[in-house]
Structure formats: C-alpha cells, structure tokens
Amino acid sequence: MAHVDEGFFLPESPRWLASKGKVKKALKIMSLMAKVNGKPLSDAQEKDILRRLESSIEDAKDKKPIPPKDVDEELQLNVKAQIKDSNGTGNSRTTGDDGKTEAVVAEADVEDEDGLTAPPSPLGLFKTPNLRKKTLLIILIWFANQNVYIGLTYCGPQIGSTLYIGFFLSSAIELVAYVPSLYAMDHFGRRFPMVGLQIVGGFFALLTMVLPESQSTATMVCFLIAKMAVASSFLIIYPYAGELYPTVLRAYGFSLGSYIGMTGLIAIPFVVYLVRKHGLSLPRK
C-alpha cells in the first residue's frame, strides 16, 4: 500500500514522452535531471534540445519504422565512428584531466572476424578475451557476495539474544548500509568501494567465528558490521555489472551472474542447521 502513490511523484521517462510527441514534458524532465546533476541548462540549450526533438519526431513520421536490431547496429556503428574520429583509432580509452585513464566505451566486444556486428546471444559473453575476463570476474564476485549476504541473513536470528531481536537487527542494519554505499558509488566509483567493503565484511564475518560464545555482544557487533559491509557491496554489484557489458549483452551478463550467484542457496540451509546445532564459534580443543 505504501507504493500506491509512487506513480504520482516519479517522473516519466523522457525517451517515452518524446516518442509520444510530448516533447515539452520530456524537456522539462531532462532540464530537472541536468539541474540535479549540477549542470543546469541555459535557455539557449533548452531551445536547441526542443528544436532537435521536434525535428526528430517530424523526420520519424516520414520514415518507415526501423527494426530494433537495425537500431542497435546503427548505434554501435555511430559510436565506433565517433571513437575513430576523435582518436584516429578504435581505442576505447581517453585520458582525463588528472592524467588517469578512464573507460569510455567498451572495445568492439561483439564484432565477428569480419568486423561486423554479431547477433547477440549468451555465447557472446565469452567471445573475446576482454568479455571472458569480465564475465568470469562478475560471476565470481556475484557468487561470493550473494552467498555471504544470504548466509548472514539466515544466521542473524541465531546470533541475537532472541530470534526476533537477531532478525530485526540483521534487517535494520541494511537501511544503514545503503546510505554510505550510494555516497561511495557517486564519489569513488564502483570497483574500490566494492572491493573494500567485501574485505571489511569478510574480516568481521570471520571474526564472529573466532570470538568465544560468552562474548555475545562483541559477536553481535562484528556480525552487524559484516552484514552492513556485505549488503553495501552487494548493492554496488547491480549497477557495476550492468555498466561493464555492451548494451546487446547486458541482459545476458546480468542474468548469468545472478543465476550462478543463487546456486549457493542449495547449501545455505545446511549451514544454518549446523550453526543452530553447533553454534557459530569455531570448535576449540
């Protein structure tokens, strides 16, 4: 029920509005987006965008509909042409003001041997060395992060003084975790916050196993820190995985990582059973 009124407050997609001829509404939302990102549009820029939107709509009325596959191919060809025009080569990197190399467009990951765009398929995730490396790393990261996250969630009720307190604290800490995670993604990127949070989460998760059962408060604190760090890094995986793949392979890569990440759920109930039977701490001589 709390989400019923969201449709009255969330802005509509500018792309959809423009496709329906509602260019002024689309421009209004685009102007708001630019303002929120600290790049407000001038009156001249708004007029230019409005003119181009209206011109595109008029041109579309005089042309036959273009199949989605042709649109994707055309967009890829345009991007590659722009890269070659700006760099003189097909390289996919540019150098920022600070001298650091920034990724702009993925290399021609979906090209076949003749340089033509290959039809998208799950096998495209392993077509080039670059894509194979990305895919295998995403699968590994997703598998580790998702299983640690769900394992901690299931073990939470076993750590608190009661099942209800343990479950409540395990769930409430996620609300705290998402705030610094969103801030870190905006200011420090994806890679380093995700890796750092996974290291912190793994360290404190192992620490809960080393502490004796008598140290229940310290165990709970370490558990909550681990859950907060792992939940934060898990949140980063979703946009990070989507941004690494070309558009035509994004859905395949995202689905594969999520699917393999869920396979560990087969063993997690048995882990929870062992925790309930033998306790969280490691056995001592």
From TrEMBL:
Region feature Disordered, mapped onto this chain: 82-101
Highest taxon, organism lineage: Eukaryota
Keywords per UniProt: Membrane, Transmembrane, Transmembrane helix
Record carries keyword Transmembrane helix: yes
Main subcellular localisation: membrane
InterPro entries reported for this sequence: MFS_sugar_transport-like, MFS_trans_sf
Subcellular location field: Membrane
Topology with respect to the bilayer: Multi-pass membrane protein
Signal peptide: none
One Gene Ontology CC term in the entry: membrane
UniProt-recorded Gene Ontology molecular function terms: transmembrane transporter activity
Gene3D superfamilies the UniProt entry points to: MFS general substrate transporter like domains
Record carries keyword Transmembrane helix: yes
Record field: transmembrane: 136-155, 162-180, 192-211, 218-240, 252-275
Residue ranges with Polar residues bias: 84-94
Name of the protein in its database record: Uncharacterized protein
Source organism of this protein record: Cyprideis torosa
Lineage, broadest ranks: Eukaryota, Metazoa, Ecdysozoa, Arthropoda, Crustacea
